[in-house]
Amino acid sequence: MKCFPTSRALCQVCVFSSLLVLPFISAGAAIAQGVALNGVGPINRSMGGASTAAPIDAAGALHWNPASISGLASSEIGFGLELLLPTEELSSQVAANAFGAGVPPVNLSGSTQGEPGVSPIPSAAWVHKCENSPWTYGLGMYGIAGFRVNYPGSDTNPVLMSQANGGLGHVVAEAEFLQVVPTISYAISPKLSFGVAPTITLAKVAVDPLLIGPQAGGAYTSGNGTRQHWGGGVQLGLYYVGDHDWHFGASIKSPQWFEDFRFRTEDGDGGTRTVTFDLDYPMIISFGTAYSGFDRWLFACDLRYFDYKNTAGFGGGAGFGPGGEVTGLGWNNLFSLSTGVQYRPTDSTSWRLGYTFQQSPSSDHDTFFNIPAPLNIQHLLAFGASHKITKNVILSAAYIHGFESQSTGPYHIPGLGPVAGTSATSKISADALTFGVKLLY
User: Fold this and answer.
1) Which domains does the chain have, with CATH numbers?
2) pLDDT one-digit tens code per residue, 28-41
3) How much is the pLDDT for 11?
4) What is the mean pLDDT of the chain?
5) What's this model's pTM, rounded to 2 decimal places?
6) DSSP for 132-180?
7) Residues forming a β-bridge with 205
8) Contact of 167 with 211, CB cutoff 8 Å
């Protein structure tokens, strides 16, 4: 019984290990499922993230169902790089007398295009199947979530006017969530496998102005003085190969419990101050089914539940604390549906099409609080292909488009709440190109 890699496999693992630093470059704006990406790597993304019961690559299997690595056809090492470009626009208006008789009755309105730029999102995954053994081992490292916003200050767009004039000034926000997933799966029988994976997550959040901290001297300070923060949890999964070419899977990702996020900033007199913020990553429950009964075809569907409402930093009522600090985003729990189809016209080539629908995590009423994180894209379409260039090397690529979504709500002022006669509208869409290589052994 072989349960350890061969010398050739060990060489490949060494190559893989040299790539482990790649996921710590960046994790850009997510374009599905709230803050969370709907998949990792070109193959999983091109299937719309549907892989809970359809293990066709190591990255997707490790990310969505640790038990499903037992269903991979062979041992493999894979890595990829995604280039994600969000398109963001923020508009606002203030009607005359919206802020009362003490303010000159001037109608103000404006629109500003954001410049978040391209975010690189690497992924790396390794799965080793033990010959004549029920055990399968894996390790994944990839960006799982994030966002990026970059709006300059404005003289005409009320919400981006200087804080002295009642706006927020320039708004720059960025979050990166990077995960390491050592995984083990045991085949209880030829049909049923169980998997477990401790999850280690590294995250960085920067917000300027620091809306999640109390105001100093009547204004928000900078929130760039921060570092990477550590969190962790666990993932469990089941994978079942049914009769008549049906496959079923289920998994649960516990919340990622983080240490308090710390921001080094200043007080109203310019002195040093540390602001802490409680932020976690939500619990995710996935159910999946797949069908492979048609020659060269695979159909997959995943239903997911995201527990944002009970997650620190995301859920709870959006509002202000006693110091003017934003206490949360006001996100609700949501369901998402991911579907994917793969067709193999030849033994060396695969084509894929994927679609994801998600409920919006936030309401229009809370648009103002979500200006730094406008993550309400609901429809996502992807297509991709893979080609085997040698017996053991497969190249893959995919394109993903997140269709434009927008939300509109009133200004919220500390101590006053929503202000009648005001509005802020946030629009977002996104495009991504991802490519990678998979080495079989």
Assistant:
1) 27-440 (2.40.160.60)
2) 555 667 889 999 99
3) 44
4) 90
5) 0.91
6) TSSEEEEEEEEEEEEEEEEE---SSSGGGS-GGGTS--SEEEEEEEEEE
7) 175
8) no
